[in-house]
Design brief:
The protein has 186 residues and is of the alpha/beta class. Helix content is 37%, strand content 18%. The protein is built from 7 helices and 6 strands. It is globular, with a radius of gyration of 17 Å. Bound molecules: iron/sulfur cluster. The site of iron/sulfur cluster has 13 residues, from helix 1 and helix 3.
Amino acid sequence: MNEHTSSDARGRRIAFVAHCLLNQNAKVPGLAGYPGVFQPLCTPLTRHGIGIVQMRCPEMDHLGPGRPLGTDTIDQYDTPAYRDLCRRLAGAVATEAAVYHAAGYRVLFALGVEGSPSCSVSNAPVLEAGCRILRPGRGLFMEALAAAFAAAGLQVPFIGIPEVPESGELDEALSSLEVVVTCAGE
Ligand code: SF4
């Protein structure tokens, strides 16, 4: 038996988090609300001793940090190449999650970003009559991620974080996070 095993403090509880919630430098220029981490998430994510896995930012991989805002809708990103990128990134996340799951770890939730063409969970932006509106649904990356988790046989709750009031109620999202963590037990 390894002499360090008895002092191993890991909690075996993991969360997969949209890249920019931990690194606002990845956001489209003009949309970062914080210098680094999206601060309202710091305490909720750390106080329960949850391991945080930062997912890749698909838009960064696609167009880099200087990408234009454009219409900021799903319509802007909905191309075969971008969907393929989202599928590949989502597949890698699901593979990593499945490895943890198979080893007895719990994957508590995946965090997305409401109002994002890629990472929305419940409120996704679309173009309608030339205007950007939010409609119920997932962004392109979260859609691919849900499919990848399902294909891997994983049931992972999704929680969308609204960074701005226009995208939803942040307090409600943080309450949902607490509920999921509480139901999962310590
Ligand atoms: S694509 Fe997702 S991770 Fe990247 S900046 Fe947009 S919301 Fe954040």
